[in-house]
Amino acid sequence: MRAPCDVAEFINDRPISTFQLRIVALCFLVVAMDGFDAASIGFIAPAIRSEWLLTPTALASLFGAGLAGLMVGALTFGPLADRVGRRTVLTGSVASFGLACFVSAFAPSLPVLVALRFVTGLGLGGAMPNAITLTAEYCPQRRRSTLLTLMFCGFSLGGALGGVISAALIHDYGWRSVLAAGGAVPLLSVPVLLMLLPESARYLVLSGASAQRVARALARLGPAIAFDETQTFTVRDTRPRGGWLPVLDLFREGNARNTLLLWLTFFMGLMIIYLLSSWLPTVLHSMGFSLRAAALVAALLQTGGVVGAIVLGVLMDRLDPCRVLAFTYCIGCASIFTIGHTATPALLCLAVFVTGCCISGSQTCISILSASFYPTHCRATGVSWASGVGRLGSIAGSVAGGVMLSGGWSNSTIFSLIAAPALAAALLMHRLARSRRGAASACVAATPKSAASCRCSRNDKR
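RESULT FIELD:
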């Protein structure tokens, strides 16, 4: 009888194909739409505030609703994807946030817009973690970090485009046009995703799909691939499932401490990112920048995120990824502090760009890192719950920004406080590096048989 084919090893042993690059490109598109939405709401906030005469506290409810939806969507749709499939949840999420965002353009009042932002957030919360998971499960281990980094750069690029497009649309057509555009693109992309995006082959094996269906999925990796009718498939990292609570698996097999450290770092990073993306244009406008100039300067945050993610992705393939991120968060802490303590426009722009490189870039890479923490049967849950818990930080950041601006706090005080979570993230990453190094040392000390099956090695081929 023919030996079962391990899906992960089969993907790892083959060169990267056009089919895999297409998956990266499609998921790049999904996270770019997420990044556009996350950034554009901050860019249109000053215009909404002026039209509806809102206080910063009232405006904070608009940010908080979208972020609350993101959190609920991530916590809900990640485990659902481990049950019904990554492709199904991903395309459904894109359709839902596109429709809700488009309808938001016609909101007659703040309460209606807040409700629609929550629904938009639900879809966004389910889209990004599943885009990461699906891409990771089709990428060979030797190039996984690079391809995931490039894919996730869509978020920062979408955010940067959000600033440029918002500046043009607000000036000519008003803030509602930004929401209409942000909803129309996802809706138009849904048929493309349904036609071109495959289901994860690893998920198909674990869900009990027929061998023929798995074979068809893997055959798309190259024109010369063919399986006979007797071929069966397996996934090496199969583990018993935690019933209808797969989140419990994130704390098993020695993962509890690392999971908590990862979640806390997500919390700190997203607190900073959403506080800045939500309120930086408003702060710059209050400093005398025009709405257009404020949007363009704030877009440097996302542009820096693209550059930083690419550089950090290369460094993480060569050095201890947790130590790379710890050092980067330290630089980000200094650059955030600089934003609040300079009156020189050129230095301000540089500080915003460096902050994007270090904070947004690190957030991209830690999201990629989370995909390597867990086995296939709970990977979508692990990625989405890290993101979902991190959304608590984004909510806290958005609300804190409104409180600080309403209280009339000085820019130097505000940005000094924003720098503190970056320092905390650096310390958490340093602790995670020590934890993972200790686990790897335990693997080296194990017998050859147990070392071969140990799941905590940095070279784990999951």
